[in-house]
D-methionine transport system permease protein MetI
Amino acid sequence: MVFKMAQATDDTIYMVILSGIGGTIIGLPLGILLYCTRKGHILDSLFINGLLSFITNVFRSIPFIILIVWIIPFTYITMDLLTGTKTFLGKQAAIVPLSIGVAPLIARMIENALLDVPKGLIEAARSMGATPLQIIYKVLLPEALPVIINSMTITLITLTGYIAMAGAVGAGGLGQLAIQYGYQAYQPVIMNIVLIILIILIFIIQIIGNVIVKRVNHR
């Protein structure tokens, strides 16, 4: 059981890291576009902003446990294309719904982080002839970096909870261990140990996030 607990913890960390990266790949550009296409901003477009907001809100409103089941066909196809494995179960397959599930959260947090950047800095960059891309990479992202890091910390903590739920549908990790050996086998000790490990992981993520925020915050 100790080996299974260690393996489940390792699988959980694996899924947190990779799905965090996957969610960021989707959510970061989406959040930037949500901000930039707002009325009066550098890529002002009511239509694009409305469309992106609608898509983001739709996926944010779907409970994660339902999302996993809903996109099983997409997960199956994605796994077949990327790994040649025709499955929607296991830690690798779980990264697909986890990334999609957390991407809208990341997008909204990135958008809110960019909204905190003083408009004077953006106008100053505009007046000096900076392109929208230069404003994003040289003004918006550097200025909002501490808030973005803090948002990513929250995202990883949220993913830890998502992964625990994903265990109910065969994703592996600590969630599946708790359900299979704790709940179904009527062993509350295992359930309690899993909870303690999850709490420790969340504390570690929060501490690392706080340290990084302090290092990048030059205000």
The chain has one domain: 2-216. The longest helix spans residues 2-36. The mean pLDDT is 82.
